[in-house]
Write a structure and sequence with these properties.
Blueprint (H helix, E strand, L loop, with lengths): L2 H32 L1 H4 L3 E2 L2 E2 H31 L11 H10 L8 H39 L1 H4 L3 E2 L2 E2 H31 L6
Antiparallel strand pairs: 1-2, 3-4
């Protein structure tokens, strides 16, 4: 990659980050703190919207923005030809053929098919894992912390109502635990698909 292309790639990355962080700032700080009182006049699942943004909305937005960033960076990688598939194995052979004055060999798609299939399987397994873990987190944070908070408040944990605990701490503890589960599961997936760092 040329220095100019690298600079353009980095500028595009920074622009993307600036947009996504601005969105997250608006949702977490503006909606969750500055505009919490006016938003509390709107109800979401029986709870004030400002309270929801302060408790859950900014976290959900952050997780969604992670996926938006990953998808956008894949597009940027393809645009700037820095993706995983950007350097075919036959490139050096084609360069050598050009040096010899002969025509380069056409890119053999069959050589890349097993690798492409393996990568696609790896990515699908990763997405399935993420879907399961995010579904668990959604049930704990939104289901237990908002929708089922009243019935759960009948149960006490450490002297506090369980629904309140899920809304204040439980969803955060669950999120942290799911990070460790994700890391361990991805290590297994890395070994299964032979993409581990070891």
């Amino acid at each position: 990659m040329t220095p100019d292309k690298r600079a353009d790639y980095w500028k595009a990355n920074l622009r993307l980050l600036a947009v996504l962080l601005t969105i997250w700032f608006i949702v977490s700080y503006l909606f969750g703190i500055l505009l919490v009182e006016p938003l509390n006049s709107i109800q979401l699942g029986g709870y004030p919207l400002g309270f929801w943004f302060a408790q859950q909305g900014s976290i959900y937005t952050f997780v969604i923005l992670i996926f938006v960033y990953a998808a956008s960076m894949n597009r940027l990688d393809e645009t700037f030809d820095v993706g995983e598939d950007s350097a075919p194995a036959s490139a050096s052979a084609n360069t050598a053929r050009l040096d010899e004055g002969t025509a380069p060999a056409p890119h053999a798609q069959t050589d890349a098919d097993p690798e492409r299939t393996r990568r696609a399987g790896y990515w699908k397994a990763n997405l399935r894992l993420l879907a399961v873990l995010l579904a668990i987190w959604f049930v704990v944070s939104y289901g237990f912390g908002i929708l089922l908070v009243e019935p759960l408040n009948a149960i006490q944990i450490g002297g506090y109502p369980l629904g309140f605990w899920f809304a204040q701490q439980g969803s955060i503890y669950t999120f942290v635990a799911l990070i460790f589960v994700y890391a361990a599961s991805m290590n297994r997936l890395d070994r299964q698909f032979e993409v581990s760092e070891d």
